[in-house]
Design goal:
The chain is α+β, with helices and mostly antiparallel strands. It contains 14 helices and 38 strands. The chain has an 8-stranded mixed sheet, with helices on both faces. Strands 3-4-5-6 form a 4-stranded antiparallel sheet. The radius of gyration is 25 Å and the shape is globular. It starts with a helix and ends with a helix. Belongs to the peptidase S9A family.
């Protein structure tokens, strides 16, 4: 929890659609399309641990000079796979184009965010019609002209890939610190812009992977660098106008290799918070924001399995921790005795306390009750005085949005459901009024009355009831096709939110279901713990049992279910096609984490040490080795029929390295006994999140939906025909 609070999440679990096509053809050059899929050469390689020897004939697909990938055999193989993808998808190009245009038609091209006050300025961002990226603006609260402060389109010009990372305006409003990645490698370069003159300062910090936090009266920034393994182990101070070589390291993590460091400011912006931790343990220090090189205050020394994050108000520490209850409690402490915590809100089996925010006259707690989001206003004088913000839909996604000021009586909220588009509200604290400021506009039209959403519970094989959120048209034929999505890892709860691209399936007669399986924290922290380490296979079993339960309840039929997932959700795809291949009509696995055992055995890979608390350490533990081996999708591929599959990868991906999906597909091609489609497309110029730009994302979504419709046998019918 602490790590989440204090870092700018530049990665996020990739639940979106992955990479675009590799440009195989060049202008003026005719390339003969392949007539058969590429076959990867098998080369002898094996390894042994704990007395167990495993052959890995596709090990060579991992470039030994990684992160540089320059082995011509590897690049030629990936290009051949991309050429096969292009050849097989070419007959579906008209469908892809049709889907792209209808998805694009649901997006308001010249869209903008709702302005929000921060100090003397109102800030917002806009898309111009036809633009891939945003422009950021501000104007004085007192009145005056709008000022363009950052143009992503200009920054992206000339780059195949662009991603804005940190974005931080100094408290005095003069400077903008931002960072950008131009190749998908998640190594960002930080720059500082003088908003009075419009000029960039000469200060340039390459290799960041963190937020940019203003301290010392807006004369300095705190940042963290990505090390050779894409982990941030430092909090470093840069004073404006000084050489980066003179920057001062405020903290460095040396005790735990898998820990990562993040920074942030307290509610009143008077303390710099330096947090370090991994997926299950955290440790926090405080230093004065106006004197960041002062001796830090350690809140409480790390204790394995104990997570906590802190804030400060008027000299009192506020601590959110799981030290005595799995669903977290809220406590207070003094700066003189920061490790002595007095409970304010006790942990609860029913209410999962996920976060808190301090404001001048009240504080807010967020959490989930029976899996549904809760936002609660609380009184400093009486912690038992709780004022919940009520929402009327049976299933929804709601939470605090952008609330930058400490002293305010209006809260900005974000809200959506599977049938309600993204909505921005202001909640007026004094009156309790919810004011709708903006709802996502769908230019091509959207009639909410055509759709219905349901939340059902389906028993897993161990008797656990797994919630499922479903959306479909009211006129959908019973037992029609159904698309099932899940993630199921790292305690990430997939919200029952709105999607315009999803409508392209729903309007063609599909139901769309989200399985809230264990491994996420949808129903509390125990829900997460029951899907990790030695209980990891609960995640896969839940997903399969949900699919079978939806068939039993008459939502669809066996073989008419398409499924998708990315990253750890791609691991889920790999596991369930091994165990229950006949359930699925089509499978899309984005940047799938499928070579689990090899990755967890390689401590030199970017994220491996930090991942051991999630998956187990097979280097040290024979039990962990055997358990991971029992489900690792790459290792469990067998000679059997597999469903049609589309797999994606990113050459620059530091999270799920490109060779995982490449090896998996190579092994599947070797042993599978069917003639179903198996396609691999590798983005040769991007990373984990695929191609940048909003229209490129739509194009990828159109390709995915086209593949599903093609393989489900419904590509030749229009949306209107299939909805009848």
């Amino acid at each position: 929890m602490a790590f989440k609070r204090y870092t700018a999440c530049l990665s996020a679990a990739t639940l979106a659609l992955a990479a675009p096509l590799y440009a195989q053809n060049t202008e003026g050059t005719h390339v003969t399309q392949p007539t058969s899929p590429p076959t990867a050469e098998k080369r002898d390689h094996s390894y042994s641990h704990h007395g167990i020897t495993i052959a890995d004939p596709y090990y060579w697909l991992k470039d030994q000079s990684y992160p540089t990938v320059d082995d011509t055999d590897i690049l030629d193989h990936l290009k051949a796979e991309n050429a096969w993808f292009e050849a097989r998808m070419k007959p579906q190009q008209a469908l892809v184009d049709e889907l792209f245009e209808e998805m694009k038609g649901r997006i308001k091209e010249d869209d903008s965010t709702v302005p929000q006050k921060d100090g003397d300025w109102l800030y917002w961002s806009e898309f111009e019609e036809g633009a891939e990226y945003r422009k950021y603006y501000r104007k004085p609260v007192a009145g005056g002209d709008a000022q363009l402060i950052l143009d992503e389109n200009a920054l992206a010009d000339g780059h195949e890939y662009f991603r804005l990372g940190a974005f931080s305006v100094s408290k005095n409003g003069r400077y903008l610190a931002y960072s950008a990645d131009t190749n998908g490698s998640e190594r960002f370069t930080a720059r500082i812009k003088d908003l009075q003159t419009g000029e960039l300062l000469p200060d340039e910090i390459p290799g960041t992977l963190s937020g940019l936090v203003w301290v010392k009266g807006d004369t300095a920034l705190v940042y963290g660098l990505a090390d050779d393994n894409w982990r941030v182990h430092d909090a470093t101070l840069h004073v404006l106008g000084t050489p980066v070589s003179d920057d001062v390291e405020l903290y460095r993590e040396t005790a735990d290799e898998g820990f990562r460091v993040g920074t942030g400011l307290s509610a009143q912006e008077d303390w710099l918070v330096i947090a370090t931790g991994d997926n299950e343990t955290s440790e926090v220090r405080l230093v004065p924001a106006d004197d960041p090189t002062a001796e830090p205050i350690l809140i409480k020394a790390r204790q394995k399995g104990v997570e906590y994050d802190v804030d400060v108000r008027d000299g009192t520490l506020w601590v959110h921790t799981n030290d005595d209850h799995v669903n977290f409690r809220l406590a207070t402490a003094t700066l003189d005795a920061p490790g002595e915590w007095t409970t304010l809100i006790p942990g609860s089996d029913e209410f999962y306390l996920t976060d808190f925010d301090l404001f001048k006259n009240f504080y807010v707690t967020e959490g989930r009750l029976r899996g549904l989001d809760q936002i609660q206003l609380r009184d400093y004088a009486d912690p038992n005085l709780v004022k919940p913000i009520a929402f009327t839909e049976a299933s929804f996604n709601a939470g605090l949005s952008n609330n930058p000021e400490y002293d305010q009586n209006t809260l900005r909220l974000a809200y959506e459901s599977m049938v309600t588009p993204d909505s921005v509200f202001d909640y007026h604290v004094d009156s309790g009024e919810l004011e709708l400021l903006k709802q996502q506009e769908i230019p091509s039209g959207y009639d909410v009355d055509l759709y219905t959403t349901e939340r059902v519970e389906i028993p897993a094989r161990d008797g656990t009831m797994v919630p499922v959120s479903i959306v479909m048209r009211k006129d959908r034929p019973k037992t029609g096709p159904l698309h099932l999505y899940a993630y199921g890892a790292y305690g990430y709860a997939v919200p029952p939110g709105f999607s315009t691209t999803r409508l392209s399936l729903i309007d063609r007669g599909y139901a769309y279901a989200i399985a809230h399986i264990r491994g996420g924290d949808d129903l509390g922290r125990k829900w997460y713990l029951q899907g990790k380490l030695n209980e990891r296979t609960n995640t896969f079993n839940d997903f399969v049992d949900v699919a079978k339960g939806l068939v039993d309840k008459g939502y669809t039929e066996k073989g008419k279910i398409s499924i998708s997932g990315g990253s750890a959700g791609g691991e889920l795809m790999g596991a369930v096609v091994n165990t229950d291949p006949d359930l699925w009509g089509a499978v899309v696995a984005h940047v799938p984490f499928v070579d689990v055992l090899n990755t967890m055995l390689d401590k030199d890979l970017p994220l491996t040490p930090g991942e051991w608390p999630e998956w187990g350490n097979p280097i040290l533990s024979k039990q962990a080795f055997a358990y991971i081996l029992s489900y690792s999708p790459y290792d469990q591929v067998v000679a059997q029929d597999y469903p049609p599959m589309l797999v994606t990868a990113g050459l620059n991906d530091p999270r799920v390295t490109y060779w995982e999906p490449a090896k998996w597909v190579a092994k599947l091609r070797e042993v599978k006994t069917d003639d179903n489609e198996l396609l691999l497309k590798t983005n040769m110029g991007a990373g984990h999140g695929g191609k940048s730009g909003r229209f490129e994302s739509i194009r990828e979504a159109a390709e995915e939906v086209a593949f599903i419709l093609w393989q489900q046998g419904s590509a030749d019918r229009s949306a209107a025909e299939q909805a009848k």
